[in-house]
Backbone:
């Protein structure tokens, strides 16, 4: 039985229909589907009922003004009608942040995507012959032009590229790989598990820290299909280590007539040593060194859309293309158009560093980062006249991310905040709950905004969030 107090409060709750007549909700109906407005009302009313029925000790004298209900209903409406995939401001300084969407597409790629997707196109049509063509020809020529490879195939992502290649070249046969190279990538996906799903049998050789040429050589037998090297992209083994270089592996492959594959992970086309980053071979170098097949991602250091690129010998690529798995991993016109536009930017080796956002952010010089940090700090100071938050510009370190260049940091400048009125944790939460959300990082009890990954047009968003912080405090 419902107690009398509760019954009295519940009876006063307005009905859905009467709430719908309210001006604010009538206005909302002009922009939102009726279904969503009604659902927001239902949810809020149901929550109020639940509260009243389950908190008998705290409802004495409770009244729920309709105005308050309306405020909550509108907030709920905004929450349930919003996109789930939304813009966020990346203030972490991690350039290729897998959780935040990896690479920003170059403007040229976005323009191309728009053009191709608003019109019909020759995705699978051979314009010269006037008959059915292949979607796989589109990015191939430019990939071969840039990398020097004989042939290329683009699939959904690099994990797919590895799966397809191994399934094509080594199903039910053995692939020799160093123990030190069997890695786990983000989201607890393990490369060895992906490889095993291809039907290939992994023959792990060597030890975690050291693998020698003789380890590969003594594992070769009649069932061997492939020698595989996995680029240590997201971790580093340091100290007493050795691995067999690609040229040495290629020599071994030639001796036994076995193909050599390298899963490069990132797939970088420019030499990053000029920015103080070492150990990331370019795709061109790996092709030049004689790898028969090379795989890498489209949205890591390449800075394009999510994709997996397979480069290599013509006969191997042709076999991959005929594999039914290719159909399951195929890319659509959006990926192809954005990838082709991104790749074309690499024809100008200097301009590409400005045009591809991933490379632009990696190559930002310290002086420019310092200037940006001061600019952002000044904006924050202006936007909230308060002594409650200390705003400081200081040096810190950014990371490339995306499993590239582990253990290597790029010197950067950050705006560091600390509040006397709220914990640094709370500061982080407030920025994260802003719309659009701002994702920074906490270090030595300061909230850091790393300007390397903040786009200049996003400074005003951060200023707004900062000002809101003060009006709510
Ligand atoms: C990132 C990575 C992959 C997976 O690439 P996706 O494009 O994310 O599927 C595979 N291998 C290595 C070495 C990687 O670094």
Residues:
């Amino acid at each position: 039985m419902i107690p009398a107090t509760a019954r009295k409060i519940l009876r006063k709750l307005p009905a859905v229909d009467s709430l719908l007549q309210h001006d604010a909700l009538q206005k909302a109906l002009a922009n939102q589907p009726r279904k969503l407005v009604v659902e927001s009302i239902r949810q809020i009313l149901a929550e109020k009922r639940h509260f009243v029925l389950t908190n008998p000790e705290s409802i004495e004298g409770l009244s729920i003004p309709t105005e308050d209900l309306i405020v909550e209903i509108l907030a709920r409406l905004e929450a349930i009608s919003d996109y789930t995939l939304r813009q966020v401001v990346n203030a972490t300084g991690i350039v290729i942040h897998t959780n935040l969407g990896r690479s920003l597409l170059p403007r040229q790629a976005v323009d191309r995507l728009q053009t191709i997707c608003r019109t019909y196109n020759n995705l699978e049509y051979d314009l010269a012959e006037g008959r059915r063509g292949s979607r796989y020809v589109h990015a191939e020529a430019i990939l071969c032009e840039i990398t020097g490879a004989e042939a290329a195939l683009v699939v959904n992502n690099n994990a797919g590229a590895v799966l397809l290649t191994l399934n094509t070249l080594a199903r039910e046969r053995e692939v020799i790989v160093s123990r030190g190279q069997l890695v786990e990538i983000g989201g607890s996906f393990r490369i060895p598990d992906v490889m095993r799903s291809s039907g290939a049998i992994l023959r792990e050789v060597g030890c975690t820290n050291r693998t020698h040429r003789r380890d590969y050589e003594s594992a070769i037998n009649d069932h061997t299909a492939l020698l595989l090297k996995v680029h240590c992209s997201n971790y580093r083994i340091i100290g007493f280590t050795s691995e067999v270089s690609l040229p040495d592996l290629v020599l071994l492959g030639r001796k036994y007539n076995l193909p050599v594959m390298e899963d490069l992970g990132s797939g970088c086309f420019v030499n990053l040593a000029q920015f103080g980053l070492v150990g990331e071979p370019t795709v061109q170098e790996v092709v030049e060194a004689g790898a028969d097949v090379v795989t890498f991602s489209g949205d890591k250091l390449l800075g394009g859309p999510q994709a997996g690129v397979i480069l290599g010998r013509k006969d191997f690529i042709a076999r991959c293309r005929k594999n039914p798995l290719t159909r399951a991993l195929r890319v659509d016109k959006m990926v192809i158009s954005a990838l082709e536009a991104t790749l074309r930017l690499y024809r100008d080796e200097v301009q590409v560093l400005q045009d591809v956002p991933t490379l632009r952010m990696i190559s930002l010089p310290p002086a420019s980062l310092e200037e940006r940090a001061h600019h952002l700090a000044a904006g924050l100071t202006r936007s909230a006249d308060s002594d409650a938050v200390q705003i400081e510009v200081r040096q810190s370190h950014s990371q490339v991310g995306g499993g590239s260049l582990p253990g290597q940091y790029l010197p950067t400048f950050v705006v560091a905040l600390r509040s006397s009125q709220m914990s640094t944790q709370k500061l982080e939460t407030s920025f994260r709950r802003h719309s659009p959300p701002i994702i920074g990082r906490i270090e030595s009890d300061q909230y850091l905004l790393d300007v390397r990954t903040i786009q200049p047009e996003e400074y005003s968003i951060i200023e707004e969030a900062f000002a809101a912080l003060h009006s709510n405090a």
Q: What stands out?
A: The chain has a mean pLDDT of 93. The first strand starts at residue 89 and ends at 90. Residues 157-159, 162, 185, 191, 230-231, 233-234, 263, 265, 297, 308, 403 surround pyridoxal-5'-phosphate (CB under 6 Å). The domain at 107-355 is CATH 3.40.640.10 (Aspartate Aminotransferase; domain 2).
